[in-house]
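$ fold --in a.seq
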Amino acid sequence: MTDHWTAFDAAAARDAQTRIVDQFAADPDRLARMSVEAAGLYLDLSKQSWSRAGFEACLDLARACDVEGRRAALFAGEAVNLTEGRAVLHPALRAAPGSDFHALGEPVSAEVDAVRADMKAYADAVRSGAEAGATGKAFKAIVHVGIGGSDLGPRVVWDALRPLDPAIDLRFVANIDPRDMAEALTGLDPETTLVVVVSKTFTTQETLANAVAARDWLAATLPADGMTRHFIGVTAAPDRASQFGCGRTFAFRDWVGGRYSLWSAVSLSCGIALGWDAFEAMLAGAAAMDDHFVSAPLERNAPVLLALAQIYNVDGLNRPARTVAPYAHALRRLPSFLQQLEMESNGKRVHRDGTPVARPTCPVVFGEPGTNGQHAFFQQIHQGPQIVPAEFVIVARTHAEAPESPLWSNALAQGQALMLGKTTDQARAELIAAGADSAEADRLAPHKTFPGNRPSTAIVMERLTPATLGALLALYEHKTFVEGVIWDINSFDQWGVELGKVLAKAILSDVAAGGPSAALDPSTAALMSRLM
């Protein structure tokens, strides 16, 4: 393994001294080899910093790290989440009915099919009005209560696919700040509002606090004997949900990680509000990406290549951040979704055996929709001293029938500008041509110089449909998994989330007791006193 990392580092050191644009002349097959189509998506990684030798070194590293073997273990339902002894089987959730997935040897596909059938029946009943509220009125709004993976996944799906004038309004509440719930409930009628509470354990502090607020809001108007028709639980702990007051629960199992759970009953709200056909089409798009990930050779495998490009930037070229710019307003929440998917999965400091990592792992992920980001942080990625790789998600037709060329032309231009840059001599010549004198041109040229040689990837789709959205999200899931394999970390636990939650409970105990305890550090104690 060390030999493969050594070869990887040597290739990266050479590529750090070469320009991306020059690689096209040196390697005429570059574009064909570094682009791939899968499940309705086209990926162009030819503007990445790797040469042909660097590309091959990355593939050799993936083989040495046994990406193919670990992929097989994932789909076989082995305990790839070693710290918790769990299988990780989100692909089972979007597989075709009648599939044969197993979690630690236990057949699970029949259960997945049964839950999906229950979800469909309930979604259809709500949309038709057959499933109505306590006073007989049809539901016109859904308030989805969750946080983390129980919120971000369904939220990105709804924003991406929602109709302009939905028959059922879907609103989300995640923040424990009461303002979030107040905004979600404003203008809604309790008689026509369905509340869906999503919590894997049904113990999440923020979700339960918001669920209590929603329950109280319903109870102020609705008859007590009809409350349960308005309160639905989605959980791996149905008994707790029932005790809380949920009239009906939809289950998912502990082999479904929170940030990988949008394919399950966690997205029941979306299945209702979008209509079941749209939800099933999204599952099918994700399943198509699963098929590609399992069957395509590594050198033609979209998730693998996307992962290797990031690893080359992070570990080979010391670039600890990446920006994602979706050139489609409907995908505006994709960067937030990816922050959790990637940074919670791979923001780890120890290997699977518990020994400290010696190399960087997950970069900081951030982004905004194009063209908004162009008028914000793109200044830094073009002319700042740090190199930040960019990822452009481009939709040819976002709304009207004609391609949205004013939108996607900006994406193409940004990738081109990042790669080509502009020399000081070019900037000076442009200034002279525009009428500046020599002294003025000399003064301004450095400010108009762009270093260039900055990498980007383009992910292109014709339209944003349920199927292409499913494929896109599954692409990123598998990319995250491949990175975890190569970094030799567990991508499926999240212990870093826990410590703050435990300490928050201790602080609340101090608040209830009237003030800071002696165990608190001086800064935290002073802040508590100021805030009480």
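$ fold --in b.seq
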Amino acid sequence: MQPQDVAPRHAPRSASVDAEQAEAALVEHYPRLVRLAYLVLPPSLGRHRRALTAHSLAQRSLPRGRVAGDDCVPPPRRADGRDPGYVYLRGRVLTAALEAAAPRRWTAWPKRAQLPPVLPLVWGLRLFPRCGGADELALEQRLSGLSGPARAAYVLRGLERLDDGEVLRALRAAGVADPKAALARAAGAGAQFELLASAEFDPCALQARPTDLVRRRRRTRAALAATAAVVVCGALLALPDGGLGGDGAAGPSYARNAVSEQALQPAGLGRVAAFAWKTSARIDFSAWPTRGDRAGDTALLRRALAVWARPGDTVQVSATPGTPAGPPMGAPQLLYAGTVDDAVVVLFYDGLRVVRYAESKDGGAAAALDFARVDGADEAASDALVVGRTDGNVRYLTAPWVRNVDVRDLLTPKGVTLPLRRTADGVTDPVRSPDTSRSCASWNALTMQDGAGKHLVTDLGELTPARLVSGPPGRPHDVTGAADRASWAHTACLLPAVRSHGVRAVNSWQFATQQLPEANGGAAWLCTRAETWRGTGSRVLAEFLTPGGKPSAPGAVVARAEDSPACGTRQPRALAGVLWKSRGGHWYVLAAGSRQITSLATTGEATGSTVGRLLAVPAKQGAQAQLSGRLVDGTRVTSLR
């Protein structure tokens, strides 16, 4: 029997090969034939497909009948060890592997070897040979840089142990146009022939790993859903009367919905007359008239509605937290359509959301789509919408009932206000957006006067400006007095903490004042609560203001919470504490509560208690203390954290 590490030699020219001889040679030398095909195939196929293709080529090399040796088998080299069956199979495998390695010509019909193998077929697994060492990896890289004929020449010399003459004859028999050039290039790849017998290049000893399970399951579900859809549609179309079953005149479930189609038609948009708000029972966004110099541009409105229904890859979509970004539920109301700076802007209102569509004034495929939730808006909350942002400036579209608009810097509570001009459509001049840098040199807010009074609003990066108020929970009022403006001067630079959070209103409330120990002056305690349009996600900050600072110095945040009812209508109280150092260098635990608190106590590394809602207990630097209080009915409450 032929040794496994020595290739069978060539058969004599007069030999002939029948199917039985070839089958015996295939069974005996199958691992060597598969390894030969694997080494000649291009590494670009990937290790999984390369291994399966090598097995496929070796199995397809079996002839269907007797083959004349004169036509297919090269002459022998010596008189011993002749195996015409193996030599014939090797030639067929080599020819097929070179065809698979040849560049694909898309103008011609591809050869069978260039197509993925039909058999063997593996589902759900990736198969590949065992990994070798650094030498095998280096050899693999060198072979990948060779052409198919050069790799074949290298393998015939190293794996089959053929001399140069035999290699040239084998390459010519396999259809190589220039076998000498291929042999010369193979000679330049080194002579590490012993590595060709390593496990790195053995496609008969394979490792198995799963494919991408998530992608496989997703594709399986998609294929099943598509198959089910085809079956259902075919069954419905085969029914009498076009698929109208027991539901009478009702269309099938896949019929086009007329209401949805009407919502995307510019002619179906809701339009409100200019002075309808004066007699409307509701003063909110539903009473806004349709305005803008492009309100009659049907093509623009159709594009805006189409992008709203199915935004493409070039559309930048943003939505405030908790705001659905889906298509219109019905025909929306058109609020505005016009040119703002370098953009064309369209504003819609559908009862739940305000939607802003913007595209370049000069055309182009890029567009922006912004969603903001505005359900339950009252007159003050529907005074204005952001209609454009350019270079750090913002323009507002004001409601028709807004009489005057002034600009105020919250950090200068005693500063004057500046009137803000508006166009006939209600679009304001550009206003510098509030400074969100760490320096916080200024913070612009707008005072809007309508029939209900003057409301202070500011931009927090969303379509709807946030309303700023002061006062205890349940009884907040507009920021109109000097004390309220002074309080907001300390709080304004903390507003970036609630920016782009879907905020509807922010209330800054001074719940206590306290005389500091060692005659260090009086301090103030503030609770700032940001309410959202969606109801959840509120944010609460407790501030501690010491004397002697600038009027615009932000308070020290001593506690913060999210989704907490503290300082709100459901829990209209506040309790907070801080570790404070006096000018004399002594440390104290200070605490304060709102009017509902009747006693305070601290435990831990600083202990003490008091009757009332103010507490000062001596402590050490870095002391950890737990603060609690009691209400009038004896209920224990903890501090804001």
